[in-house]
Write a structure and sequence with these properties.
- This protein has 485 residues and is of the alpha+beta class.
- The strands form 4 sheets. Strands 1, 2, 3, 4, 5, 6, 7, 8 and 9 form a 9-stranded mixed β-sheet that branches. The protein has a 6-stranded mixed β-sheet with strand order 13-12-11-16-23-22, covered by helices on one side. Strands 10-17-18-20-24 form a 5-stranded mixed barrel.
- Helix 1 crosses helix 2.
- The protein is globular.
Length: 485
């Protein structure tokens, strides 16, 4: 990788940055990003062209006289940085009397982070990776009715260097892995698709990420479940109890807890693009968001989770914080800037998708803490209901309140026991009512650490990965439906 941020170049970048700083500013930062990616796939037995990319550039932020300005550049020479800093200062001066004044961060600390590794990808070359994908893709074909198959593997390596005119220096290296399997079974005009967690089995690390999620062994099960769904009855309709697997819980967390708690959204920043939130500032500290079983943490410190880091993109140290404790809403997903605007305590969640986008309030690792109930006991407590597996579709209103979600597969629960598989299962509800109906939280054996690789937010749009972890959970009195409802 022709990285700009090599160990020998960090000092050079810092010197260029300091030489290029304009006069008369309060503070400035430089955030340099190198990103390299590789995407491999085998579809219906055919190896697809390898897609690889490399991207590098920098964003500067200038605070001056109460105003803030930003500028991005792919030219990290001293002259390139000088031009970007001058442009950012012009914007800072222009906004000084027109924007909410935000104090400079006084970023004086230093630190580093690197994704944990057990086995380097250097030990698993391109030929080995393609052979693995060919093998697991072939195992998806368990029946003549399997008509479409795909096995894929994505890797992204990102290195970030954040420098401040106040003396701070933060270096972080991230290694992301995205395995995926898809099998579609068809008969006549009907088709059913089963996937490897719909992309949620992703995380940070090396080759061991594949084994962490059982990627090498999952294909026969996925193919068999696609065929079983083809033969299964439609999901029944009615108000019943549901048990929700972690690979569906992550979507529920993401849409009806994560996005509503983003403080910039609560303050109105997303209104024009992706809506507001039913949450208002006065709710924090007293609002009963869910039942007493609901405990939600913001935790970028989980080893290997998709959105783990030591510092956010403004340089704020990341720590584990409860957002919801015993069902009560405690704090928002608000970074330093949103905290200054609102006067509320938040978290270290200022994140950008690239060097040419400014950091905004984003989810990182947003997790439901496990309880003490085995999955078998959660199921045993249901007289009639459905066990929901793997998100398939989602719809939620522009205040992140009323939702309707579909899943790939369901299993009927009858008299406390799992019964037949059903297809096209879905459920709907209102966020606060849904979480207040949480009646059981699975133990650590049911707890799975996963992620959402493609969360979109902001204008200009930023697509970023968020981590989510959850045990199996049970909810009472939920409206369930099939495809024909």
């Amino acid at each position: 990788m022709a990285t700009v941020i090599s160990p020998s170049s960090a000092d050079t970048l810092e010197q260029r940055f300091r030489n290029a700083l304009p006069l008369g500013i309060d503070e400035a930062t430089l955030r340099v990003i190198d990103e390299e990616s590789e995407w491999l796939a085998v579809t219906r037995g055919t190896v697809q062209p390898v897609h690889s990319s490399f991207d590098s550039g920098a964003m500067v932020t200038v605070w001056s006289g109460g105003g803030t300005g930003i500028a991005a550049t792919s030219d990290v020479s001293e002259s390139g940085l000088r031009a970007a800093l001058a442009e950012a200062k012009r914007w800072a001066d222009a906004t000084a009397e027109r924007a909410i004044a935000v104090a400079p961060p006084s970023l004086t600390h230093s630190g580093s982070y690197a994704s944990p590794h057990e086995r380097s990808w250097d030990e698993f070359d391109l030929g080995d990776r393609i052979t693995l994908l060919r093998d697991v893709e072939a195992q998806l074909v368990v029946d003549d009715r399997i008509v479409d198959t795909r096995a894929s593997l994505g890797r992204r390596d990102v290195r970030s260097l954040l420098l401040s005119s106040a003396g701070g220096q933060i270096e972080q290296t991230f290694n992301f892995v995205y395995p995926m399997l898809v099998a579609t079974a068809a008969s006549g005009s009907d088709a059913q698709t089963r996937t490897f967690g719909r992309g949620s089995y992703c995380g940070q690390g090396g080759v061991e990420v594949l084994d962490r999620y059982g990627f090498r062994d999952a294909a026969p099960r996925i193919g068999a479940e696609a065929v079983a769904l083809l033969e299964a009855p439609n999901c029944p309709t009615g108000t019943v109890d549901i048990v929700v697997a972690p690979d569906q819980m992550i979507l529920q967390i993401h849409e009806s807890i994560g996005h509503p708690l983003e403080l910039d959204r609560i303050l109105g920043d997303e209104r024009n693009y992706a809506g507001t939130s039913f949450v208002t500032p006065d709710m924090f500290g007293s609002f009963q968001y869910g039942s007493e079983l609901l405990n939600v943490t913001f935790d970028p410190t989980v080893p290997g989770q998709l959105a783990s880091y030591a510092f956010d993109d403004d340089g704020t140290p990341a720590t584990r914080q409860y957002l919801i404790k015993d069902g009560v809403l405690l704090r928002p997903l608000g970074s330093a800037t949103s905290q200054a605007r609102s006067g509320m305590e938040g978290v270290a969640n200022s994140r950008a998708c690239s060097w040419n986008r400014p950091p905004i309030d984003r989810m990182a690792n947003l997790n439901i803490e496990p309880g003490a109930t085995p999955t078998s006991a959660l199921v045993a407590g249901v007289e009639h209901g459905v066990f929901m597996h793997t998100n398939n579709s989602w719809s939620i209103d522009d205040s992140r309140n009323k939702f309707q979600f579909g899943c790939e597969m369901g299993q009927v629960i009858r008299n406390g026991e799992l019964a037949e598989i059903v297809r096209n299962p879905g459920y709907r509800g209102i966020s606060r009512n849904f979480w207040r109906n949480l009646s059981g939280v699975g133990d650590t054996d049911s707890f799975a650490v996963m992620g959402t690789p493609n969360c979109g937010k902001g204008e200009l749009n930023q697509v970023i990965g968020t981590g989510h972890a959850s045990p199996v959970c049970r909810f009472n009195n939920i409206e369930v439906f099939g495809a024909d409802a």
